[in-house]
């Protein structure tokens, strides 16, 4: 089955700095890579995702990059703000058209943005 | 839209007791997932259903755990007998599989404490 490794487990940055979280996956058939954000005591929520036919995707201050050859993908947050403080999870799956799939999650990264 | 509904939000029970967690997916979503979240193991998929049918229960820890989905709007996760190591936050998530929408929408979770 799929195995997803995520680093670092904790990350502390100053407000305005950039943050980068990295994940590796084991199953070369995986083709869908979402990132979820979980604020303290809340539910995980999707913030951005990328498919294997794309190398990079951006949405305002967040971006995700994918290297299929190396089987790793990363989350980049620029101009960090205190409200970015949360646990971020990467995940991977082989999604054949959006039906009958399951996500394998990384262990999560606790991001703290210091004012 | 009410989102995914879970009950109870908190459950405290004694070792050996039966625990039943409940989930109502978003109307029209035909995939339903049960996750367990702990500090040590992160987010683990326990079981998922598609069109009320269990597709993959390989994440169910042992025979003490069982899940059912009698209809499209209701699912239960039962632990009998419960043990202290079952203490965790249990999330239910749903997705409209086959529509091209890949996001899994999580419920607020049930925090289970087994004494």
Describe this structure in words.
The complex is a heterodimer of chains A (115) and B (115). Chain A has no helices and eleven strands. With 115 residues, chain A is an all-beta fold. In chain A, strands 2, 4, 5, 9, 10 and 11 form a six-stranded mixed beta sheet that branches. A five-stranded antiparallel beta sheet of chain A has the order 1-3-8-7-6, with no helix packed on it. The model of chain A has no long low-confidence stretch (mean pLDDT 92). In chain B, strands 2, 4, 5, 6, 9, 10 and 11 form a seven-stranded mixed beta sheet that branches. Chain B has a four-stranded antiparallel beta sheet with strand order 1-3-8-7, with no helix packed on it. Chain B is built from no helices and eleven strands. With 115 residues, chain B is mostly beta strands. Helices cover 0% and strands 54% of the residues of chain B. Chains A and B meet through strand 5 and strand 10 of A and strand 5 of B.
SSE layout and pairing:
The complex is a heterodimer of chains A (115) and B (115).
Chain A: E1 4-7, E2 10-14, E3 19-25, E4 32-38, E5 45-51, E6 56-59, E7 62-67, E8 72-77, E9 86-92, E10 104-105, E11 109-114
Parallel strand pairs in A: 2-11
Antiparallel strand pairs in A: 1-3, 3-8, 4-5, 4-9, 6-7, 7-8, 9-10, 9-11
Chain B: E1 5-7, E2 10-13, E3 19-24, E4 31-38, E5 42-50, E6 53-56, E7 65-71, E8 74-79, E9 88-95, E10 105-106, E11 110-114
Keywords:
heterodimer, A: 115 residues, mainly beta, six-stranded mixed sheet, five-stranded antiparallel sheet, 0% helix, 53% strand, globular, B: 115 residues, seven-stranded mixed sheet, four-stranded antiparallel sheet, 11 strands, 54% strand
Concise synopsis of the structure shown:
The complex is a heterodimer of chains A (115) and B (115). Chain A has strands spanning 4-7, 10-14, 19-25, 32-38, 45-51, 56-59, 62-67, 72-77, 86-92, 104-105, 109-114.
């Amino acid at each position: 089955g799929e195995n997803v490794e995520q680093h670092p487990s904790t990350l502390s940055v100053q407000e305005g700095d950039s943050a980068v979280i990295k994940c590796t996956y084991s199953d070369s058939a995986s083709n869908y890579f979402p990132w979820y954000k979980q604020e303290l005591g809340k539910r995980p929520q999707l913030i951005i995702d990328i498919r294997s036919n794309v190398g990079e995707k951006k949405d305002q201050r967040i971006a995700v990059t994918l290297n299929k050859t190396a089987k790793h993908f990363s989350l980049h947050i620029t101009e960090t703000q205190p409200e970015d403080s949360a646990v971020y999870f990467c995940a991977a799956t082989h999604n054949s058209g959006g039906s009958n799939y399951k996500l394998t999650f990384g262990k999560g990264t606790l991001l703290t943005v210091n004012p | 839209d009410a989102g995914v509904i879970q009950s109870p939000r908190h459950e405290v029970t004694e070792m050996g007791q039966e625990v039943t967690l409940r989930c109502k997916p978003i109307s029209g979503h035909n995939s339903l997932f049960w996750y367990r979240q702990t500090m040590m193991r992160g987010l683990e998929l326990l079981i998922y259903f598609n069109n009320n049918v269990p597709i993959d229960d390989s994440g169910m820890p042992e025979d003490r755990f069982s899940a059912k989905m009698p209809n499209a709007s209701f699912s239960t996760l039962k632990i009998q007998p419960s043990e202290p190591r079952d203490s965790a936050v249990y999330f239910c998530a749903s997705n409209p599989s086959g529509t091209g929408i890949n996001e899994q929408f999580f419920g607020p979770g049930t925090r289970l404490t087994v004494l």
